[in-house]
Amino acid sequence: MTVSKPQHVAISGAGGQLGRALVDVLSPVATLLSVSDRDINALEGLARTGPEAGPEEAPKDGPKERRASIHTAPVDVGDGDALRLWLAACRERGRLDWMIVNAGLGGPAPEGSLGEDPLRTAALIDVNLRAAIEQCRLASEMMIADGGGRIVLISSLSAKIGYPQAPVYAATKAGLRAYGLSMAARLAGTGVGITIALPGFLSRGMAENSSWRPFSMAPRQAARKIVRAASSGRTETAFPGSMSAAVGALGLLPASLRGTIYRRWSGQRQSVHERQGMLR
Fold first, then answer.
1. Is the pLDDT of residue 129 over 80?
2. In whole angstroms, how far apart are CA 244 and each of 110, 169, 234?
3. Would you say residue 200 has pLDDT above 80?
């Protein structure tokens, strides 16, 4: 199934590295981008009022590359009223073709701790799962009324196998994947499609690269894969292929062996229990 190019795309969490990459990749494709982030400062430099490229984006000879108009807004997706107002404002600008549910929280669990702080756990569940589900619900209702569209849910490869360094994060992404697969079937025949993206590690600047990130890929590469999958009408895309294959292979192993390999793979030689001397 091939989906026509979107004219109007809304992106939540557009201030992060993947969000900004999605804006960059979609700007030459779409006519209008409505983007939001909890921190308006994170959207600095994205707003554009007309379809034209800057000098660094256009070839020296020939016409400038067409670029989408971009509207930015500070939105905390965990605030239901703010989310509804933002999506209503998006719709007033024009029919919404795609909604990319990208806003989310991440980060590892505290080193040496058996569990995560209850407040952080609640925040991860609220933003990564509850707010993502609400974005999907609101957008799907709008799209059904307007004749169709596509919702892109940004999950994670950790949804397939878990992630010992961030168990609550992995749980929220697994829940979002299950929700997306369920909604893809539930929305069949309505004109609204679902695409679930399962990216692996994204590469970061050298100053931030304090932990090993196997098979990592540039945010722009990831954004291209997401846009390509949504444009072709795919329900799910997992990348990079090398890491997706590794995750699939690990998933076939017994849980005890998988845990040992995963800890070594992530540079963690001992379990939390062993480091704390809790095993007898």
1. yes
2. 26, 18, 16
3. yes
